[in-house]
Amino acid sequence: MSKNETKTTSVGSVYELEGRPSFAQALPLGFRQILAMFVGNIVPMIIVADAAQMSSAQATLLLQCALLGAGVATLLQVCTFRFGNFRIGSGLPVMMGLTYTFLPICTSVAVEYGLGTLFGAQLVGGVISIIIGLILPKIRKFFPPIVTGTIITSIGISCFPMAAYNLAGGQGDPSMGQPHNFIIGAIVVLAIVLLNGYGKGLVSSAAILLGMIIGYIIAAVTGYVDFSPIAEAAWFTLPQPLAFGKLEFRLEFVLVFILLFFINAVEMSGDFTVSATGGLGRQPKNKELSGGIIANGIACIFSSFFNCFATGTYSQCSGIVALTKVCNKWVFRLAGGVLVIAAFCPKLSSVLSTIPNCVIGGATMVVFSMIAMSGMSLVARSNFTGRAMLICGPAIALGLGISLAKDTLAGLGEYIEMFFGESSIILVAGVAILLNIILPKGDEDKAVEAEFIKEISQPED
Question: Can you give the pTM of this predicted structure?
Fold first, then answer.
């Protein structure tokens, strides 16, 4: 714990959920949360913009909207609203940003059908997410750590090819495979690992951002950065709604998004648990989980109109809460507010759009591996019993195997190919849930399950 944090202990407010710290105390802690999630929030937009071969102006707008979407989603979580028994927002110390659960399908739909189709499916999914929020507390028992961990692990692994393509220079880019891409990308990976391993405090929390800055500087000095989009961008402008055309609704994508929103809700409940247990010393209450999922559904509806992908909680930010015990709502409200304000500055977003693919590739190699390892840490809670391995192994092998060889589904119909070929996560989740239900439990498995049920069965206020 830093000296500054030790001083705030005398006030105690930043360590209390409902405390009122001073602006000078809360703002730096809010920036620490932003640094931890900033890169993760912009990467999906950069990957999709590059895959869809968008112009620099379109990429800048997407990045601008990514900041707006993350800020609005965060504020909805920590500024709770109640209408009788209906609650919007978890009220827990969490940061929101673009979720990687949707990244593979977002990339595919954006390239083949355009963002109007993507945002149309997301809008319907956001509405369904509100319903999911109402029923999730009743079905949490079907998603023990072995199931949730398997799903999260598959999300990380399924994104590895994207990271590899970007590390090489970007799929379809004329420079793909050139040595300089691999060299700069490797420097980014090495810098992130060293800064995370040897850095302290903010340096460690912002290791990915700092690693990207190092890679960006090297790329700029060696002539691999095009600065023209920065000069063309305005200092201030309002994000344009429906900038990529009217919303379109295709049933196959709507159904895929509904399933992915359900998986996203399960992931978010895990991060809510980390923030609540680590920062507040208790499990999240059902009304907090329900309100959090409902708030994210509303945020995703908003994002559908303002050119932003679906959002979710960020595990690394919940991890900071667990490590530092800084859980005050005003820290997160300030962080969300800063993101919203930054969204009105295209000049900032244009800087982000000039980041070379190889730098993005180096950063995402680390980001995606951390997602996969966080999933494995949840799987490890099952002590890697034979039953746990029979759930995790076949689910990941079948889901990822089919998605990497999706032409094997060509004879089963368009919808089957869409559901299970475009996104491995749906098949992984389905197999893991089914195996967890039908496989017999040994004594050790029953003990792990009983502990999980106890954790989620606390009484409401």
Answer: 0.74
